[in-house]
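Would you mind writing out a protein's amino acid sequence and the numbers that encode its backbone to help me picture the idea?
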Amino acid sequence: MQEPPPAVHAPTPASGPEPPDALGADLGWTLGVVFRAYVRSADVLFHDLPGGPRGYQVLAAATQQPPGAQGALAQRLGIDKAVMTYLVDDLENAGLVQRRPDPADRRNKRIVATERGRTTWQATQVRLDHAEEHILAALDPADRAVFRELLRRLAARAQSLDPVTDTCQIVTDIAPQDPSAHTATRPRD
């Protein structure tokens, strides 16, 4: 027997003005607004980290998981291998990660966080947690947990259906082929 979905609590008055009905029901608009708020916060948090958000993702992976091969890490994060090389170079030059030979195959390099990298990741993670809580403040703590789990499941499903192997390619994929196709026509006087 399936459990009923969790109750959704009404937003608190501090959550701000409600969007117009047509937009509030539009998945793309709502995701875009939340994503924009997240990106703005992340840009501030990652401004001094080599590679910005991508650098943070590599540092997080190098800190939280067993050392991974650079190529496998690039694939998992959806970063082009050439871009990953430069990104790891920048993180290594900043003293945040090291490349170490893979004992199983010395042709591969494993990316390992340094002590400075772990300290930087921890400090950044604390600030990121605060920023995320600010973005999710319209939800009570139980709803935040449910939202995160639902979003994780949606992301896992989307990734399994259409794997992102190069986030740079996403821009090319969504960019209009004919720029005039998305230009609104102006009424004539």
